[in-house]
Each structure stands twice: as structure tokens, then as C-alpha cells.
């Protein structure tokens, strides 16, 4: 290998930028407050989500985890009664105060909800839906993408002979994986998963968990869960929430090994 | 005690089945009754002649029902044309975008609209719609009209059908799960794309049955239409002309002019026709629903 000096320098700077990107958080939330009528749902939330890691939002039901996730995806727009203030930076763009069109912001994130919600169309069209919205019309490209993402979630072999069957004909575990594939097809950089295994049987849950372990090489995953064991199995970074506030955040070793607050200690004891 | 409970159980079961059978038999009994009363005219003249002839001269023994059928169809069609988009758009807005306060205001308004007696719609039609048609609409289209017209009938009918169709559409659209809407948005859909792909496309059968209900209701509506439609026996494609719908014929004439031979029987035949047409409309919409569901 004979590289000129400039090439060597540029290679090195490439490495540097890659390293920098890995270290910079992909998502930052600053002073986020959410009100609904009289309720203060999220109270001055500040957090950073590391890139290419599984960040687990942990906490009891009703503590505001799902609301936080919906703020990140700007799905709070669907709920007229919510008032949102603060800043949410994805890369360096404040998505709460931006002129960029909102659908393209949402496409940076794939959403996986508690229960699968396949669109009322075929398996194939579920995966190609986001691509069509992006304006992609090339049939070959769409075919390629559908197969690639169905393979990515391990569903291709199970459905390749019935791509035109309605998505609702799949089992609930398969539907959840289809929803994941559909989200991945729009090439997001973040996967928002809101208790994605809560409606699934143990085997399907395990498949989804294994998928997350593979997917974090290419995606940042934010996983909402109230299942402590799942958090321990998957987390690279943990954020513990209680009653709309962030109580503790850090590495799983720190939080699970040495909890600083009574609330987390109590949650860890009850959870086990 | 056990025996009493056993018998009580049997008796309640029997009454439930009896109530159900009564409801099932009602349309059949009504249909048979009407047909028997209409049979003199059916045995005297050809069925198809009665339906498709447009000659109406009872004193000469000419009973052609086509002008009435056409009038009914025309008025119903116009009312559907006005109701369908208004109901669809407002139902989508109410269920997908509106605040809870607006929903709280709209529900009693819809209920009041549904509960108003049709004679009130008729009076309102005479006072407001008829002058509106004759003084504003007709000059706008460079024509003249007394205002008592197919158009006025269509507008009044549309207003009457709105609460039924709207209520049903709201029920249908409320069944769209929040999660599905969130999924569509998170894949990058705009609000309009969300409505088109998830709210409308996923609910074709429901939308069709809501419209079917509205059309069947419009076709049979009598008093309000009768008050504004002019009641002139003629066939015209011009919506500013008067017409004579089938229900109006029966309501206006039954009990009068029965000295004319066959008139009584002819009116019963009109009623029988009405029943058949409503049945056909319902079957047609059932078929459409079945077809869209399979897709």
C-alpha cells in the first residue's frame, strides 16, 4: 500500500471524525417540560442518548417514559391537549423549534410500539410504505429494500411466499418484527421502542431482544421498559424515571450495582 | 327453588326468541300485506309497464310510476351528493384533529339535528331553502324557478341525513387505533397521508355502510321533501324543476280520490315499490361492504 501524504492525513482525519461522532451523543434533551391540562407529566427532563448503544428508559408505569418517547418523535402533535416546552436536539438540530418538515424528522426514528400496529395492507406494502412516502418509485429498489429489511428482522424466510397476504394474517410476534422492518426501511438512525415485548410470548420477546443486540451496531436504540430483567439484559446506558422526573442516569453497572437514591433502590428490590 | 329458577330461565329464553322472530317477520308481513292490496292492479297491468311507463292519468286507468321513481331517485342522489363530502370531512376532522372541547360541543348539536321532527325541516325548507333557490340559485344559473324544486328537496334531505351519516362515520373512524396513526406518522406520513392511507382506506366498509344508511333514510323520507319539492308529475333532468317523489304520492293521496277505480290499489303498489327499492338499496350496500371487506 502506497499512500501519498495527503491521503494518509485525510484517512486519519476520517478516523478522527468517526471517533468524534461515536462519542458525541446522538440526541440531547434539555429542560423538557410537558403539561396536560392540570398535570405536569414531564418535569424539567435533561438527558443525553449515546450513539449506537441501547439506552433503557426504566421506571414504573405512568412515570412519563412513553410521553418522553413521543416528544422525541414529535408524536405529541397528535394530542392537542399537551403543551411541550424545552429543547430536543437530534444531531445538532432542535426539533421542537425547527423549520425542517416534520415527516422527515420523524423518518430519522423508527417507532416500535407496545402492540404491533400493521397498516391495513399487505406485508409487502407495509415495508414499502415509508419508501413510497419518501418518493421512491423504483420497483427494483423497493423490492431489494423489502427483502433486505425482512431478512434483517429474520422474517424473510417465513413470509417470502406470501408477501401479498394481509399483514394481519401474521402472528403477533411476526407482526412486531414486521413493524420493526417497516421502521428500518426508512433508514432511521434511532429506534424508539416502547415496551416492544409487552404483548409478546417469551420466544418472540427473545427474538426481538436478540435483534436489538445486532441492530445496535448500526442504530441507536432507545428502549422503554418496566421489566427490570430486560433492562439488565440489554442496557448499555440506563435512565431511571419516576413521576415525570429523571432520578438517576448512567451505566448499568453504576445504577444497578450502586443505586444512589431510595426510589431506585426500592424499584430494584421490588423488581427482583 | 331450583325448579323455579329452571322455569324462569326457560320462559325468559322463550320470550327473547319470540321478540326476535317478531322483528324478523315484520318486514315479510308488511310486504305480503302490501302486495295483496296491490294485487288487483298488478293482475290487470304488466308489472314492467307499471314501473317504466311515465303516463299518469288515474281517471283514464293509466298508472305509470316512472315519474315518481325517477323523482325519488333524483332527490336522493342530490342529497347524497351534498351529504357525502360534508360528513366525510367533518367526521375526519372531529375524530382525528379536533380538541376534546369541540367534540363535547358537537355531540349534542348532532343529536338535536337527528331528533328534530321532519315537519320542522319542511317548514325551514319553505321559509329558507325555497326562496334561496328561487331568488339566488336560479338567477345565478340563468334560469327561473318557483323554488319548489328537486334542488330544494335535495338540500333539505341532505341536512336531514347529515346527523345519521355523520354519527355513523364518527363511530367508524373512532375505531382507528391511536397506535396505527402513530405508526403511519412515524414512518414519515403527513397528516393528509395519514388520513388517506389509514383512516379512509382502512375503513371502506364502514364508510360505505354509513352512506348506505343515509341513502336509505333519504329515499324513504316523506313529509319534509313533500313540502318543498313541488309535487308535479313530470320527468325532468333540470334540478330547478318540480318533481313528485314516491312517498309524497302516497302521503298526499291515500284516503282521498279513492272513488277512482284502482287508485287504492295503485297507491299500495307504490308502497310496495318503495319497500322493494329500499330492500334493493340495502342489499346493494351489503354487497359492496362484503366486497370491500374481502379486499
Short recap of the structure:
The complex is a heterodimer of chains A (272) and B (295). Chain A has a domain at 119-187.
Topology:
The complex is a heterodimer of chains A (272) and B (295).
Chain A: H1 5-23, E1 27-36, E2 39-49, E3 54-58, H2 65-72, E4 82-90, E5 93-94, H3 102-106, E6 109-112, H4 123-133, H5 139-152, H6 156-159, H7 172-185, E7 190-194, H8 202-215, E8 220-225, H9 228-234, E9 237-242, E10 245-250, H10 252-257, H11 262-271
Parallel strand pairs in A: 3-8, 3-9, 6-7, 7-8
Antiparallel strand pairs in A: 1-2, 1-4, 4-5, 9-10
Helix pairs in contact in A: 4-5, 4-7, 5-7
Chain B: H1 2-44, H2 47-52, E1 56-57, E2 62-63, H3 66-97, H4 100-115, H5 118-140, H6 150-174, H7 178-186, H8 191-200, H9 204-220, H10 223-228, H11 246-253, H12 263-294
Antiparallel strand pairs in B: 1-2
Features:
heterodimer; A: 272 residues; alpha/beta; six-stranded mixed β-sheet; 41% helix; globular; disordered N terminus; B: mainly alpha; MetI-like fold; 2 domains; two-stranded antiparallel sheet; 12 helices; 2 strands
Account of the 3D structure:
The complex is a heterodimer of chains A (272) and B (295). Chain A contains eleven helices and ten strands. Chain A is an alpha/beta fold. Chain A has a domain of 69 residues. Chain A has a six-stranded mixed sheet with strand order 6-7-8-3-9-10, sandwiched between helices. Chain A has a four-stranded antiparallel sheet with strand order 2-1-4-5, with helices on one face. In chain A, a hairpin with a 2-residue loop joins strand 1 and strand 2. In chain A, 40% of the residues are buried. The N terminus of chain A is likely disordered. Chain B is mostly helical and 295 residues long. Chain B has two domains: 45 residues; 239 residues, MetI-like (MetI-like fold, Orthogonal Bundle), CATH 1.10.3720.10. Chain B is built from twelve helices and two strands; from the N terminus they run H-H-E-E-H-H-H-H-H-H-H-H-H-H. In chain B, helix 6 runs antiparallel to helix 9 and helix 11 runs antiparallel to helix 12. The relative contact order of chain B is 0.14. The chains are: A alpha/beta (272), B mainly alpha (295). Chains A and B meet through helix 3, strand 6, helix 4 and helix 7 of A and helix 7 and helix 8 of B.
Amino acid at each position: 500500500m502506497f499512500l501519498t501524504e495527503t491521503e494518509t492525513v485525510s484517512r486519519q482525519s476520517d478516523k478522527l471524525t468517526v471517533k468524534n461522532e461515536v462519542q458525541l451523543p446522538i440526541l440531547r434533551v434539555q429542560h423538557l417540560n410537558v403539561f396536560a391540562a392540570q398535570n405536569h407529566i414531564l418535569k424539567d427532563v435533561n438527558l443525553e442518548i449515546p450513539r449506537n448503544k441501547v439506552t433503557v428508559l426504566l421506571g414504573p408505569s405512568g412515570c412519563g417514559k412513553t410521553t418522553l418517547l413521543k416528544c422525541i418523535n414529535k408524536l405529541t402533535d397528535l394530542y392537542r391537549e399537551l403543551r411541550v416546552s424545552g429543547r430536543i436536539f437530534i444531531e445538532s438540530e432542535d426539533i421542537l423549534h425547527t423549520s425542517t418538515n416534520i415527516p422527515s424528522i420523524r423518518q430519522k426514528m423508527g417507532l416500535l410500539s407496545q402492540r404491533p400496529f400493521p397498516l391495513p395492507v399487505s406485508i409487502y406494502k407495509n415495508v414499502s410504505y415509508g419508501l413510497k412516502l419518501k418518493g421512491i418509485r423504483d420497483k427494483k429498489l423497493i423490492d431489494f429494500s423489502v427483502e433486505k429489511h425482512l431478512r434483517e428482522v429474520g422474517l424473510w424466510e417465513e413470509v417470502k411466499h406470501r408477501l401479498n397476504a394481509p399483514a394481519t394474517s401474521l402472528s403477533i410476534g411476526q407482526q412486531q418484527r414486521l413493524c420493526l422492518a417497516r421502521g428500518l426501511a426508512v433508514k432511521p438512525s434511532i429506534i424508539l421502542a416502547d415496551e416492544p415485548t409487552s404483548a409478546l410470548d417469551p420466544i418472540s420477546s427473545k427474538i426481538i431482544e436478540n435483534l436489538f443486540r445486532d441492530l445496535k451496531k448500526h442504530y441507536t436504540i432507545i428502549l422503554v421498559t418496566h421489566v427490570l430483567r430486560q433492562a439488565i439484559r440489554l442496557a448499555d446506558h440506563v435512565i431511571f424515571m419516576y413521576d415525570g422526573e429523571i432520578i438517576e442516569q448512567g451505566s448499568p453497572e453504576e445504577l444497578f450495582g450502586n443505586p444512589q437514591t431510595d426510589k431506585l433502590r426500592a424499584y430494584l428490590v421490588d423488581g427482583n | 327453588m331450583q325448579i323455579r329458577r329452571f322455569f324462569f330461565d326457560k320462559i325468559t329464553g322463550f320470550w327473547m326468541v319470540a321478540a326476535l322472530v317478531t322483528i324478523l317477520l315484520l318486514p315479510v308481513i308488511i310486504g305480503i300485506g302490501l302486495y295483496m292490496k296491490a294485487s288487483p292492479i298488478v293482475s290487470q297491468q304488466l308489472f314492467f309497464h307499471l314501473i317504466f311507463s311515465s303516463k299518469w292519468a288515474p281517471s283514464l286507468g293509466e298508472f305509470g310510476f316512472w315519474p315518481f321513481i325517477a323523482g325519488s331517485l333524483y332527490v336522493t342522489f342530490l342529497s347524497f351528493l351534498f351529504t357525502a363530502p360534508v360528513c366525510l370531512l367533518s367526521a375526519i376532522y372531529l375524530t382525528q384533529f379536533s380538541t376534546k372541547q369541540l367534540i363535547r360541543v358537537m355531540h349534542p348539536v348532532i343529536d338535536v339535528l337527528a331528533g328534530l321532527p321532519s315537519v320542522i325541516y319542511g317548514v325551514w325548507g319553505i321559509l329558507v331553502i325555497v326562496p334561496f333557490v328561487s331568488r339566488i340559485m336560479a338567477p345565478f344559473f340563468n334560469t327561473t324557478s318557483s323554488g319548489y324544486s328537486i334542488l330544494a328537496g335535495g338540500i333539505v334531505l341532505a341536512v336531514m341525513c347529515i346527523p345519521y351519516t355523520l354519527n355513523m362515520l364518527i363511530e367508524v373512524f373512532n375505531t382507528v387505533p391511536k397506535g396505527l396513526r402513530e405508526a403511519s406518522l412515524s414512518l414519515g406520513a403527513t397528516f393528509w397521508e395519514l388520513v388517506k392511507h389509514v383512516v379512509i382506506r382502512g375503513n371502506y366498509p364502514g364508510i360505505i355502510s354509513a352512506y348506505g344508511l343515509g341513502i336509505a333514510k333519504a329515499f324513504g323520507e316523506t313529509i319534509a321533501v313533500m313540502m318543498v319539492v313541488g309535487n308535479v308529475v313530470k320527468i325532468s333532468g333540470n334540478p330547478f324543476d318540480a318533481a313528485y317523489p314516491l312517498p309524497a304520492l302516497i302521503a298526499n293521496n291515500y284516503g282521498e280520490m279513492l272513488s277512482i277505480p284502482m287508485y287504492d290499489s295503485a297507491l299500495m303498489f307504490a308502497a310496495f315499490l318503495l319497500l322493494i327499492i329500499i330492500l334493493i338499496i340495502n342489499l346493494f350496500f351489503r354487497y359492496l361492504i362484503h366486497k370491500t371487506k374481502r379486499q
